[in-house]
Amino acid sequence: MRLWSGAPYAIGDHVAVVAEDRVPRGEAQVLRVQLLPDNFLPPISTPWPNFQNNRSYFELELDTNLNGTIRPNDVISNIDYTGSGYSLVGNTIRDHRTRGMLLKARDGHVESNLIDGSSIADLVMQPELWWGEGNYAEHVVIRNNTLPKCGDATTGGWSEQAGVLTVRGTGTSSIVYGHDTLTIENNVFLDNDGVQMVLDGLKNTVIRKNWFVNAQYKVNDGGADHGYDGEALVHINRAHSLRLEGNRAWNVGPAHKRNLQITPLATQVVGVLDGIIVEI
Predict the structure, then answer these.
(1) What's the rounded Cα separation, in Å, for the pair 85 and 82?
(2) What's the CA gap between 149 and 234, in Å, rounded?
(3) What's the CA gap between 138 and 191, in Å, rounded?
(4) Residues 33 and 62 sit within 8 Å (Cβ to Cβ)
(5) Whole-prediction pTM value?
(6) CA-based angle 264:26:169, to the nearest 5?
(7) pLDDT in tens, the chain (280 residues)
């Protein structure tokens, strides 16, 4: 791993602490930063592969110890250094290899974009803490986007980002409600097979007035190894306090069997019966 050329923290920065099991612990503010000597050897051995060969270490003093819950092998993410407060409006992305957009920051506005033909998902929101890149997202609006014909590379059961729009947590805990306060509304999913939307690891979210058009004409088992049903429009897992309202599907194909797949790990979901309507 390359040496860090500058301090990744400054006094006053806001940081988020995530436990080793990927469950968010809370947030704090940096009061003091000290670069430790080059020959410093940490007293723990981290299981996170991309941190094992790190050679730059910092000591932070925070304004809270989060009631004593911070533990060895937790991860600290600097919220102020990860792109929070972004706006992606009116862009066109065609035939992109992998994901059209990969969102890992807070306070985002994603509106009126055309994301066409991505080989994986058109739009993904997922932290990659193991890579030292990005955390959970909060307060993000995804609105009025058009998402056609994606996922040629995600037809296998191994893919966890198999939804045209995939919001996913990380780790194996059943309570990783890291993504918070999302609004997903007025988006058009066009000519896509398999599961259209994967919702996992989130809370306090509204899914409203999205259209699924010409969906599921061919069988697509993308994400089957992770429990996704490619014959369902929306998969919900590890979620708390979600509301589905006014979503519509037109001209669904023969591979469509049900509107929602909800696991027992999803709680307080409103709109299970009428949140998605298939128009005949």
Answers:
(1) 9
(2) 17
(3) 29
(4) no
(5) 0.92
(6) 40
(7) 334 456 788 999 999 999 988 999 999 999 999 988 877 777 777 776 666 666 678 899 999 999 888 988 888 889 998 889 999 999 999 998 889 999 999 999 999 999 999 999 999 999 988 777 789 999 999 999 999 999 887 778 888 999 999 999 998 899 999 999 999 999 999 999 999 999 999 999 999 999 999 999 999 999 999 999 999 999 999 999 999 999 999 999 999 999 999 999 999 999 999 999 999 7
Token pair in block for residue 69: 């819950």
Q: Which two tokens stand for residue 94?
A: 């065609």
d(C-alpha 245, C-alpha 258), whole Å: 16
* Whole-number Å distance between alpha carbons of 119 and 223: 14
Nearest in space to 121 (alpha carbons), one of 210, 213, 198? 198
* Domain residue extents for the chain: 14-80, 82-279
- Say which residue the tokens 């918070």 belong to: 180
Indicate the length of the chain as a whole number: 280
